[in-house]
């Protein structure tokens, strides 16, 4: 794309204060929440995650924020603490595995401050309220974290918190960190003081930009006073704060112009680098994961987004214009974040819009990304599918089964074996990849005409944003070619074939079986069954890409599907089908026997989709007691209150979970010494489970 020396800028060493970075890629301090507040020693799975990223060649690794003000400053019990010297030992254990690979590392620090005490994922608060903030200002919104009126901090308390940050920085230095990173972005305490909307103080800590930055500036200066100018302090700020989603005038929040002024004050106070993100009041996660802001559609039309927010990438590169504006005003390097990869990162650096490129999800998906760039192997980088499965999942990653485990490498097998993989879905392809990496001779058979299992079908429904499964299929294909895995499509394996191949080990990854609910009328002509729908899509996928079929479906769907659709099943399959039909002009109702819908979806994606369903008048019946029958009028149910009612519909679409598919395994075991069922054929779950289980078994054979 860029010609000779394609990634010259992003691979160039950089400098933040006295610290030299190996390249311009920074692993940001996003929280993996793998710890617990009672930990004194570093957990092995935490060390493995950070070591994998360090050995992968990242320029600078920022460790997620431990607690520096307990309990005021934290809402999650799944965080390490550093508010006392007794925690230094454990943190030094983490630094040791990072520095073993000559990787510089900073420790992030933050204070949750105004966040409400009782959060959905952490209903047991660490202290009695109220939370603390600059002023007694709150915004009631179910999709935000500011639904309690906070108590304004006194000046004495502000000074105490400054001391706690500086003391934590001293402990970080004793643990071996090369610097610290203060998170004054998102909606943390420092941001609360920086924002003219949240900060209504009339003392020295409010009223104008200089005063609103005083708390943060004094913290930077106190750290420098104790540790000297050679100990770098980087700072995360919001390049803009958007209030319009919550009915707040954006001009009363942090505008790009105000953010530039803030950055200048921080530069003058001694900050060694500035990282730029954004924040949306009332849409909390959409600020630091900007691609989710556009799922399933942006909360407001893209043309209504505030000036300075880059919308063309649907979250990707969202902050680059804000970063470029700040870079023009400060003397220190600027880092930009926001769904960036090596391609967009190189371009942003070449355009002079930033000095460093921040990533986290990309490096969890493939910690070796920097090393692969340096080796000219960028086409073998494992793609992040932007599923956000990693958010709050204790370090796990959908596409990288090593993440969240206690190991970070794949060792060569003691004995080379002939491995047969039956099935070309995510579990089968990962089993083949890992087996080949470890030195085994691998052959894979897939009965369909293309690799991917159900992923090409899922891509028709999901599209390419935010979850791009097509890239994952492409990655696996390239890996198998690179690793000399022989794969055959359009061929179904039988016992006679297995006998001829004579494998030492077999992975059965044949996928699950599509099911239908047992409802009178399920075979009526107005029912578009899973097998029928899948069969139709599989036929077209033999000739066209999933993205092409998805686009054409907007034109073709009115020819074979009515306006009113009832989806039976409210798990991930049903919810995503509902989204698909709504975007094609259908009026959708989802029915589900469980009390809740969206099982299998990540919490934030589920939250945003259900909010969108409300706007689109999608009816959801959960806790259904019985599906009575299907007629040409629609579906009759017994609802959760015991009432019988008819849901009128032109078509009924069952979206039921798969069932397992292991009938063949008993016969295979009679002729092959090692047989392993993986993926949906063993137990239908998620892509992350299929890949993770396949890797776990394949690394042991």
Characterization of this structure:
The chain has 701 residues and is of the alpha/beta class. The protein has 22 helices and 24 strands. The strands form 6 sheets. An 8-stranded parallel beta barrel has the order 3-4-5-8-9-10-11-12, surrounded by 7 helices. Strands 15-14-13-16-24 form a 5-stranded parallel beta sheet. Strands 19-18-17-23 form a 4-stranded parallel beta sheet, covered by helices on one side. A hairpin with a 2-residue loop joins strand 20 (626-631) and strand 21. Helix 3 (155-175) packs parallel to helix 6. The longest helix is centred in the first third of the chain and has 21 residues, at 155-175. The model has no long low-confidence stretch (mean pLDDT 94).
Strands of the largest sheet, in order across it? 3-4-5-8-9-10-11-12
Number of helices: 22
- Beta-sheet strand percentage? 15-25%
Low-confidence stretches: none
Helix content: 25-40%
- Shape assignment: globular
SSE class: alpha/beta
Largest sheet: 8 strands, parallel, barrel
| Number of beta-strand segments | 24
The overall pLDDT, averaged over residues, is 94
For the record, give the distance between the C-alpha atoms at the N and C termini, rounded to a whole number. Answer: 40 Å
Rg, rounded, reads 27 Å
């Amino acid at each position: 794309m860029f010609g000779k020396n394609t990634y010259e800028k992003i691979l160039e060493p950089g400098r933040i204060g006295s610290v030299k970075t190996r390249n311009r890629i920074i692993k940001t301090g996003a929280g993996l929440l793998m710890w617990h507040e009672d930990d004194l020693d570093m957990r092995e799975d935490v060390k493995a995650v950070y070591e994998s990223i360090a050995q992968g060649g990242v320029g600078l690794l920022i460790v997620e924020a431990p607690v520096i003000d307990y309990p005021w400053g934290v809402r999650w019990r799944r965080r390490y603490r550093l508010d006392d010297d007794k925690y230094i030992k454990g943190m030094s254990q983490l630094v040791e595995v990072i520095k073993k690979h000559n990787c510089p590392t900073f420790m992030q620090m933050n204070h949750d401050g105004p966040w409400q005490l009782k959060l959905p994922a952490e209903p047991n608060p660490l202290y009695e309220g109220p939370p603390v903030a600059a002023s007694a200002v709150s915004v009631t919104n179910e999709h935000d974290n500011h639904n309690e009126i906070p108590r304004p901090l006194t000046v004495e308390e502000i000074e105490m918190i400054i001391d706690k940050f500086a003391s934590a920085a001293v402990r970080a230095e004793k643990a071996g960190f090369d610097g610290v990173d203060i998170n004054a972005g998102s909606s943390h305490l420092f941001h609360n003081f920086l924002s003219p909307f949240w900060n209504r103080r009339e003392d020295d800590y409010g009223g104008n930009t200089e005063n609103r930055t005083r708390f943060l500036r004094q913290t930077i200066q106190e750290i420098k006073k104790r540790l000297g100018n050679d100990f770098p302090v980087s700072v995360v700020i919001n390049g803009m704060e958007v209030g319009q989603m919550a009915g707040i005038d954006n001009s009363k929040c942090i505008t790009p112009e105000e953010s530039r002024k803030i950055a200048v004050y921080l530069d003058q106070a001694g900050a060694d680098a500035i990282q730029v993100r954004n924040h949306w009041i009332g849409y909390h996660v959409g600020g630091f994961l900007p691609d989710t802001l556009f799922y399933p559609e942006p909360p407001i039309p893209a043309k209504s987004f505030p000036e300075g927010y880059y919308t063309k990438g649907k979250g990707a590169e969202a902050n680059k214009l804000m970063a470029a504006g700040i870079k023009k005003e400060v003397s220190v390097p600027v880092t930009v974040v926001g769904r960036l990869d090596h391609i967009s990162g190189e371009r942003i650096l070449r355009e002079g819009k930033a000095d460093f490129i921040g990533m986290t999800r990309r490096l969890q998906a493939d910690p070796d990304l920097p090393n692969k760039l340096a080796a000219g192997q960028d086409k073998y980088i494992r793609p992040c599918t932007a599923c956000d499965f990693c958010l709050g999942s204790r370090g796990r990653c959908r596409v990288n089964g090593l993440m969240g485990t206690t190991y970070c490498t794949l060792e060569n097998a003691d004995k080379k074996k002939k491995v047969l993989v039956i099935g070309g879905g995510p579990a089968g392809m990962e089993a083949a990849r890992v087996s080949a990496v470890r030195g085994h001779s691998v052959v894979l058979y897939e009965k369909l005409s293309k690799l991917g299992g159900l992923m090409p079908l899922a891509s028709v429904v999901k599209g390419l944003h935010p979850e791009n499964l097509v890239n994952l299929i492409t990655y696996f294909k390239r890996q198998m070619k690179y690793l000399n895995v022989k794969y055959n499509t359009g061929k179904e394996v039988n016992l006679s074939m297995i006998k001829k191949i004579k494998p030492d080990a077999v992975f059965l990854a044949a996928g699950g079986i599509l099911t239908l609910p047992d409802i009178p009328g399920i075979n009526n002509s107005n029912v578009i069954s899973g097998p029928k729908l899948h069969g139709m899509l599989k036929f077209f996928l033999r000739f066209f890409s999933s993205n092409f079929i998805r686009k054409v479906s907007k034109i073709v769907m009115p020819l074979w599907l009515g306006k009113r659709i009832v989806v039976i099943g409210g798990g991930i399959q049903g919810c995503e089908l509902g989204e698909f039909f709504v975007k094609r002009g259908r009026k959708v109702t989802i029915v589900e026997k469980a009390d809740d819908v969206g099982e299998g979806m990540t919490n934030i994606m589920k939250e945003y989709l259900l909010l969108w369903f409300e706007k689109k008048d999608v009816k959801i019946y959960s806790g259904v007691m019985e599906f009575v029958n299907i007629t040409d009028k629609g579906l009759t149910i017994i609802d959760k209150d015991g009432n019988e009612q008819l849901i009128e519909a032109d078509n009924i679409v069952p979206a039921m979970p798969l069932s397992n598919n292991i009938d063949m395994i008993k016969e295979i075991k009679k002729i092959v010494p090692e047989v392993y069922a993986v993926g949906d054929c063993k137990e239908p779950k998620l892509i992350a489970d299929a890949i993770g289980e396949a890797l776990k078994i394949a690394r042991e054979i």
